[in-house]
From TrEMBL:
Gene3D superfamilies: MFS general substrate transporter like domains (1.20.1250.20). InterPro entries: MFS, MFS_dom, MFS_trans_sf, MFS_YcaD-like, Tet-R_TetA/multi-R_MdtG-like. The chain crosses the membrane at residues 12-34, 46-66, 73-93, 99-119, 139-159, 165-188, 209-229, 241-259, 271-288, 294-319, 331-356, 362-383. It is found in: Cell membrane. It comes from Herpetosiphon gulosus. PROSITE patterns: MFS. Keywords: Cell membrane, Membrane, Transmembrane, Transmembrane helix, Transport. PANTHER family: TRANSPORTER MFS SUPERFAMILY. Its main location: membrane. It is a multi-pass membrane protein. This is MFS-type transporter YcaD.
Length: 405
């Protein structure tokens, strides 16, 4: 593959991390408020849950087409379109009293999220050198985790201060507008020379090199959304629940960059086997009703090593897919994350309801632990070993505006 000359061209990563953090921040800000808005308009619990399912469904259905289109028309366009779609949805939702129209804005939100994530992941994968890929994807994961963690805190603080449910949405809108302006002014378009063989993008057929990263994306979405959605239903006091969530989130954020550096140094396989082993052990041990202090330690392990799965999967994907096809591959990655996020809470919640309140914690942690153990078992059989040539990154062509240092 021919490379684009890189003379006097920079590819700043911080605006990409900012875009991801902003979308995650907005989701964290508004999610606690959406049940309140819908219930004010006569919605029941089923409608509230369905609104989240609709958002994830739009993410799943649009991820792959967006990824393939990115390969043809470029990354910058979809970062901007995604942020605009997301901004429009955030601005419209608090003023919408009609439930079907509210669902339409949730669809817009999912499309915006899909555009931003797929484009950002393609950018990071395309411009990262093999020696820095683990570090860059880890910072990407840290940005995502930080935005997700900060969102509920900021949203709750703004609401408590103003007593107006519209104002937290406006905070999300302002952050998205700032991110859009930065993308327009700072982010150049990474170009890659397409060969005839590569110009078609990634097909919908999942080839063996893609199985491992796509399985990681599904597992990450399944586990994290199941924990976020269902952990509050367990028999913990408010103080215990808040402490457990805080420890888990902090461990998730802190572990990202060290794991990314280890990924660059030692490769994905020993790191992934170690992460999956510790994850499955922590989850399965949590089913034994350990003392709360030990539960906090297990939560720290779950947060630290679950959080590293996403950047590891993204780094493996980037190493196995030619740069000209990274848009389509990133779209598939987003789709698998969305599928896991969609299936996880419903399936695990169904298992918890079936076994009853007495064993609901065993159902939650046991289901996640067994799923992690299954992927670890597949890795031990060598299903992740493929004979593919790792592609070198491409340079970034100038957008006409010189990026800052």
């Amino acid at each position: 593959m021919q490379q684009v000359p890189s003379t006097h061209v920079r590819h700043p990563m911080w605006p990409i991390y900012l875009c991801v953090a902003v979308t995650a921040l907005g989701i964290g800000i508004i999610n606690p408020l959406i049940p309140h808005l819908l219930e004010q308009n006569g919605a029941d619990e089923f409608i509230v849950g369905l609104s989240t399912s609709v958002m994830f469904a739009s993410l799943v259905l649009t991820g792959m087409p967006i990824g393939r289109t990115i390969d043809k028309f470029g990354i910058r366009l979809f970062l901007i379109v995604g942020l605009i779609s997301y901004t429009v949805a955030m601005l419209a939702m608090p003023w919408t009293n009609n439930i079907p129209l509210f669902f339409m804005w949730r669809i817009f939100e999912g499309i915006g999220w899909s555009c931003v994530w797929t484009a950002a992941e393609t950018y990071v994968s395309r411009v990262s050198s093999p020696a820095q890929r683990g570090h860059n994807t880890a910072v990407y994961g840290m940005s995502l985790a930080s935005g997700t963690a900060a969102g509920p805190i900021i949203g709750t603080a703004v609401y408590e201060w103003t007593k107006n449910p519209v104002h937290p949405f406006l905070v999300a809108v302002a952050a998205a507008i700032v991110a859009t302006v930065i993308v327009v002014l700072v982010v150049p378009e990474p170009h890659v020379a397409h060969t005839e063989h590569e110009s078609g993008g990634v097909s919908f057929k999942i080839t063996r090199p893609l199985i491992l990263p796509l399985a990681i994306a599904f597992l990450y979405g399944y586990g994290t959304l199941s924990l976020v959605s269902l952990l509050p239903t367990l028999n913990y006091s408010n103080w215990e629940l808040g402490t457990l969530i805080s420890v888990t989130v902090i461990a998730n954020i802190v572990a990202q960059v060290p794991i990314g550096r280890m990924l660059d140094r030692y490769g994905y396989r020993p790191l992934l086997i170690g992460s999956l082993s510790l994850l499955s052990a922590a989850a399965l041990f949590s089913t034994l009703h350990p003392p709360f202090l030990l539960t906090l330690f297990l939560g720290m392990l779950l947060g630290a090593f679950a959080g590293t799965l996403y950047p590891i999967g993204l780094a493996v994907l980037a190493a196995r897919v030619p740069p000209a096809k990274l848009g389509g591959a990133s779209g598939m990655f987003t789709v698998c994350y969305g599928l896991g996020s969609f299936v996880g809470p419903a399936l695990t919640g169904g298992v918890m309801a079936m076994v009853g309140d007495k064993h609901s914690d065993q159902a939650l942690f046991g289901t996640i632990g067994c799923l992690v153990l299954a992927l670890l078992g597949l890795m031990m059989t060598g299903i992740d070993r493929v004979n593919v040539k790792e592609e070198h990154p491409v340079s970034v062509a100038s957008s006409g505006i010189k990026p800052p240092m």
